[in-house]
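Thanks for the sequence, V.! I ran SusF/SusE family outer membrane protein right away. Repeating your input here for the record:
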Amino acid sequence: MKSLIIKSIALGLITIGLWSCKKEETKVVASSGTPGTLKSSVSTLVLDKAKLNTDVITLDLTNASFGYQAGITNVLQLAVKGTDFKTPKEVALEANALSKVFKGVDFNNLLLALNLSFTENSEIEMRIKSSISSAVAPVYSNALTLSARPFPLTTWIYVPGAYQGWNPQTADSLISPTGNGEFKGVIGFTPGNLEFKITPAKKWDIAYGDAGGGKISPTAGDNFKAPAAGAFQLFVDLNKNQIEITPIVFALIGDATPKGWDGDTDMAYAHGVWTVTADLKIGEMKFRQDHKWDVNYGGSGGTAVFNGGNIKVTSGGSYTVTFDVNNLKYTLVKN
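Predicted structure:
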């Protein structure tokens, strides 16, 4: 009898031991993670319009390891070399994808967002950020260096409003010289016609409204409103959905102008052109913005040049002076 009791106790202890071992084996603990690797099909890339719809770069990667099978999120990061990825541009990769092929237009947009030179190659770095959850620190692959040059991809957005009859077809535009999502332009608002909206095309299919606090949204119904009548510079960032509205004026200055070098003769703005009628004398003049020398234009022969030489006036009299800052052209027409 005593022997039977001892055997029963021993069997129970063995069973408990086996159950404990089995439970311990199924316990899952994530490690700090081992980074994956990244390879590129090219080390130098110069883009142009002919490559917009062609495959220009292929990136291959191996997944990071966090100690067990889990869904890993991979994000491609790009940054100017030497910035230590402080403000990278990011592209989320498809789940389980170990290769990413970029067409020219898509990779050019990424390079434009880094504000790289259009005239010479710049060095950028690329790496993969891998993560499994917010509770586990991400890991980063090796960083690849790419010598790259984007090309300008000018884009526009439009500003239909009360100042022009709410017609997107004829609305003034804001320009992004590099197509990086940041648009700037000047709109002339007339008294009592201060409200407007932003459209990405010359139609009402999509219209950005005032979301408050300097924010814009395609779902916001409220119109934007200029502070007063006059010329205002609009800056719209579609990356951050933000808008800034700032008063702006261009003026004549110089010994050929009514107030000489000590005062500005303000110009009026309408539909892309600054205009003023003024009595000019033989001498020299310039155009400058906001009564400061930070932004000024000189030039000759009707072509305006930023911070250029003085414009010469060779005959006195009444003139109609125009300045097209977008196309850097000016005219002096004697009345």
